[in-house]
């Protein structure tokens, strides 16, 4: 039933795509983004550890709610940026996240529209909601990561930070890119790769609810900010989630701001510098 509602909404969202875009200064991804191969990552184990069917359990469920309308409207000024660093308690609580509906529309108008057709945007919307429901990862977190990793550009290329990162979530080895001959299927798979992990490595589900691929990095306790640092850096400094350990220092702070209405997609922007974060390009 819910899924049918979702499909019905997609054409409406596609129609919104006519709004004139503000071209992100950096459409796509940049060095330092993406899932990183963890130091001491165990040898390839059972495929059942990640990928399709993976689901959050335990404390991570405190950061999941499926409603598309629960949550505020986000920052009044969508260029607002708060510097978040240090321990997880310094980052915004769950009730501060804006609602999914407004968050999707905001990013659709400002970023997705630059490189994605109306059908592609509708397909991405459906994929986020389907994977969120199956993985029990909040759809807003999935959307924030997509915006962070690729500015929502489904045509984004692969990068390599030690492993090959492909697709809108620049996910672990084995992740796929967009396939124009299979629009819905490849977009769904790109969202799965980053959220549920690939056949060989972790995604957000495994960083939130840990398994042997991620638990050596220390206990994330289901906290999405700690999980995000693990995803991007392969290890976590629990005293400072803005310690990039060679990856993007601003990564977790950016997600925290995106979840509250920030749309910034620039690389090395003034906000980062003002926060003392190293800019990448
Ligand atoms: C995205 O769109 C911009 C602006 O139209 C274009 O310059 C760029 O090549 C596109 N990038 C990709 C990867 O499609
Ligand atoms: C973790 O971050 C804290 C605070 O920034 C810093 O003092 C410490 O050296 C970092 N730990 C490691 C292992 O890098
Ligand atoms: C955390 O890391 C960021 C980025 O390197 C740095 O600016 C900040 O001073 C560090 N320490 C704390 C406690 O915030």
Automatic annotation (TrEMBL):
Residues 1-19 form the signal peptide. It comes from the Eukaryota. Coiled coil: none annotated. InterPro entries: Lysozyme-like_dom_sf (IPR023346), Transglycosylase_SLT_dom_1 (IPR008258). Transmembrane segments: none annotated. Keywords: Signal. Residues 130-240 form the Transglycosylase SLT domain. This is Transglycosylase SLT domain-containing protein.
């Amino acid at each position: 039933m819910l899924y049918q509602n979702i499909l019905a909404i997609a054409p409406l969202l596609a129609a919104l795509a006519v709004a004139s875009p503000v071209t992100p200064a950096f459409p796509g991804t940049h060095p330092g983004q993406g899932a990183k191969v963890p130091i001491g990552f165990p040898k390839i184990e059972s495929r059942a550890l990640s990928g399709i069917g993976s689901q959050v359990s335990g404390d991570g469920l405190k950061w999941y709610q499926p409603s598309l309308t629960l949550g505020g409207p986000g920052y009044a000024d969508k260029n607002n940026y708060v510097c978040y660093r240090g321990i997880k308690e310094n980052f915004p609580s769950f009730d501060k996240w804006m609602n999914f509906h407004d968050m999707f529309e905001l990013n659709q108008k400002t970023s997705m529209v630059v490189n994605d057709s109306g059908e592609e945007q509708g397909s991405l919307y459906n994929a986020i909601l389907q994977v969120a429901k199956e993985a029990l990862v909040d759809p807003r977190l999935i959307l924030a990561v997509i915006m962070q990793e690729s500015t929502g550009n489904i045509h984004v290329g692969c990068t390599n930070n030690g492993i090959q990162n492909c697709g809108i979530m620049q996910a672990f080895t084995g992740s796929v890119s967009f396939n124009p001959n299979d629009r819905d299927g490849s977009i769904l798979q790109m969202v799965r790769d980053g959220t549920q992990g690939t056949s060989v490595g972790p995604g957000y589900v495994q960083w939130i609810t840990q398994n042997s691929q991620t638990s050596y990095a220390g206990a994330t306790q289901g906290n999405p900010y700690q999980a995000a640092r693990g995803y991007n850096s392969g290890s976590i400094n629990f005293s400072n989630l803005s310690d990039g350990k060679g990856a993007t220092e601003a990564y977790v702070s950016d997600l925290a701001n995106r979840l509250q209405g920030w749309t910034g997609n620039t690389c090395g922007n003034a906000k980062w510098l003002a926060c003392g974060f190293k800019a990448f390009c």
